[in-house]
């Protein structure tokens, strides 16, 4: 990563998640959407332009990323989209006071394994408050050793794989990047696992 502020770059995962949102644009008007780790906010901006009520968020410790969110909104004529500092794994007044949400977006948030549990802690908190919500996330496969399966089980979450071809995101040009190497992008939807007896 050339820039230590990797939230200022449009990563291939963001393009794939934006494509998923575009493919499902008819279901977005009126939906309440929160993007976490938004950076330049491509998925959140697409959702907002498709009629969703969007809140963008990134770490409160990364003011440059929060500014990127604001700049993306202004460039896309979305000056009223709120931008919040939400740090994964931290219960903050901003997190506690969030209005109800239907969809959480996260593109390439599963980047550094040391953050995986903090991310899923935050997702679990949000899904507990919004039991019918879903977390739509894309990620780049960087290591066969990295897995969130055990953490999903620990936090009573389940995931379902979404094939990229099912929403036209399996084209090489869509997730292309000037970064070297081949990109293997995956998408999944995470939700609360049904507890036994329900």
Automatic annotation (TrEMBL):
PANTHER family: HEPATOCELLULAR CARCINOMA-ASSOCIATED ANTIGEN, HISTONE-ARGININE METHYLTRANSFERASE METTL23
Keywords noted in UniProt: Chromatin regulator, Cytoplasm, Developmental protein, Methyltransferase, Nucleus, S-adenosyl-L-methionine, Transferase
Pfam families: Methyltransf_16
Protein's UniProt keywords contain Nucleus: yes
GO cellular component, one term: cytoplasm
Catalysed transformations (reactions): L-arginyl-[protein] + 2 S-adenosyl-L-methionine = N(omega),N(omega)-dimethyl-L-arginyl-[protein] + 2 S-adenosyl-L-homocysteine + 2 H(+)
Protein name (database record): Histone-arginine methyltransferase METTL23
Domain of life, per lineage: Eukaryota
Family in the record: Belongs to the methyltransferase superfamily. METTL23 family.
Chief location category: cytoplasm
Upper classification of the organism: Eukaryota, Metazoa, Chordata, Craniata, Vertebrata
Keyword Hydrolase assigned: no
